[in-house]
Amino acid sequence: MLNTRQLAHVLSATALSSALVGCANQGFYRVTLEDGRTIEANGWPRLNETTGYYRVEDQAGQLRVFREQEVGSIVTLKPDQRR
């Protein structure tokens, strides 16, 4: 059985791990549309299965919405690849 101090350490470690995993998902991505336009996104674009539209915040902080059929590719950007 864990004492109070051990439990506090376990909970702290769990919270830290969760925070790090959350940060890992907040990368930068380049979405290339079929017509050649590109969108550099903060975080992975989220697809609404009901409407068939992606929603993403671009690097300027603007919400961008586009149809699933418009997407040519989505790639992860390394820090030196960002504009």
Distance between the termini: 52 Å
Number of domains: 1
| Oligomeric state | single chain
Give the overall shape, derived from the CA principal axes: extended
Mean pLDDT: 79
Known CATH architecture? Roll
**Class, according to the CATH hierarchy?**
Mainly Beta
Instruction: Order the strands across the largest sheet as they lie in space.
Output: 4-3-2-1-5
Report the radius of gyration as a whole number of Å. 18 Å
| Major sheet characteristics | 5 strands, antiparallel
Beta content comes to: 35-45%
Tell me the series of helices and strands, N- to C-terminal.
Answer: HEEEEE
Find the structural class using helix and strand composition: alpha+beta
Named CATH topology: SH3 type barrels
Output the number of helix runs.
1
Query: pLDDT below 50 for ≥5 consecutive residues: which ranges?
Result: 17-25
**Roughly how much helix do the residues carry, as a percent range?**
25-40%
In total, how many beta strands?
5
Kindly summarize this structure in a few lines.
The protein has one helix spanning 4-24, and strands at residues 28-33, 38-48, 53-58, 63-67, 71-77.
What does this entry look like structurally?
By secondary structure, the protein is of the alpha+beta class. It has a single domain (4-81), classed as SH3 type barrels (Roll), CATH 2.30.30.100. Helices cover 25% and strands 42% of the residues. Strands 4-3-2-1-5 form a 5-stranded antiparallel sheet, with no helix packed on it. A hairpin with a 4-residue loop joins strand 1 and strand 2.
